[in-house]
């Protein structure tokens, strides 16, 4: 269900709008601009209905703050106002308002403007989801990995929590494509993606296709003994799936080499360095014969 944040200093307006929208949307209400700005980061609304005339901080100032914050600037804002001046409407639109709703409220117009804006939000979200999805494997792609891995890194710093960063590469996959053809190679990538999603998803890992025959994952966990034991079984579990690969120099089935770096991130450390180290561990697994998992834990 989409969410809407109402920011208006008049309780009657909040009550009317809440009653009108609550059956179709999750509605949150705030009685001041300052309170609304704080609430935005808590509820992450899909749409904001914002009054213009409020004490201390008016709607124009609130809108400026919303549009200057990278985390909130994409949220559409509809002004609700009794002002009739074209200059005020132009000012709001130039500051980034999506639309205007005039007071006193006409219920049908309020619903129509809100519904139309939410429809655009829905379309935008669908397009963004497609842009962050690998079309072949239906796993999140490299772009989404870059976004979410950095977020997970900073969250782990704030929570003083361990992260397991993993890099997975299919062994001898060029030989597979050369022998079986690229169509069969695509089918193999889909099968392995499905396997990894099920296997690693069971331990709350987020799995991504990084590119080519390479996958990556990240896990937030402090249950390190159990985590290491489960991660160590990845290559063996895939081998038991027995996807044929007669020209592999590792085994006669598809196998993977896996590098996992477990670290409790510190504020002075960079995610890119930890990821590069996990990649080096994957190559160590490959150079040591493949079909194995190399795990290193930074104590």
From TrEMBL:
<dbReference type="GO" id="GO:0043709">
    <property type="term" value="P:cell adhesion involved in single-species biofilm formation"/>
</dbReference>
<dbReference type="InterPro" id="IPR029787">
    <property type="entry name" value="Nucleotide_cyclase"/>
</dbReference>
<dbReference type="InterPro" id="IPR011006">
    <property type="entry name" value="CheY-like_superfamily"/>
</dbReference>
<dbReference type="InterPro" id="IPR050469">
    <property type="entry name" value="Diguanylate_Cyclase"/>
</dbReference>
<dbReference type="GO" id="GO:1902201">
    <property type="term" value="P:negative regulation of bacterial-type flagellum-dependent cell motility"/>
</dbReference>
<protein>
    <recommendedName>
        <fullName>diguanylate cyclase</fullName>
        <ecNumber>2.7.7.65</ecNumber>
    </recommendedName>
</protein>
<dbReference type="InterPro" id="IPR000160">
    <property type="entry name" value="GGDEF_dom"/>
</dbReference>
<dbReference type="GO" id="GO:0000160">
    <property type="term" value="P:phosphorelay signal transduction system"/>
</dbReference>
<keyword id="KW-0597">Phosphoprotein</keyword>
<dbReference type="GO" id="GO:0005886">
    <property type="term" value="C:plasma membrane"/>
</dbReference>
<dbReference type="Pfam" id="PF00072">
    <property type="entry name" value="Response_reg"/>
</dbReference>
<feature type="domain" description="GGDEF">
    <location>
        <begin position="161"/>
        <end position="298"/>
    </location>
</feature>
<feature type="modified residue" description="4-aspartylphosphate">
    <location>
        <position position="51"/>
    </location>
</feature>
<dbReference type="InterPro" id="IPR001789">
    <property type="entry name" value="Sig_transdc_resp-reg_receiver"/>
</dbReference>
<dbReference type="InterPro" id="IPR043128">
    <property type="entry name" value="Rev_trsase/Diguanyl_cyclase"/>
</dbReference>
<feature type="domain" description="Response regulatory">
    <location>
        <begin position="3"/>
        <end position="118"/>
    </location>
</feature>
<dbReference type="Pfam" id="PF00990">
    <property type="entry name" value="GGDEF"/>
</dbReference>
<dbReference type="GO" id="GO:0052621">
    <property type="term" value="F:diguanylate cyclase activity"/>
</dbReference>
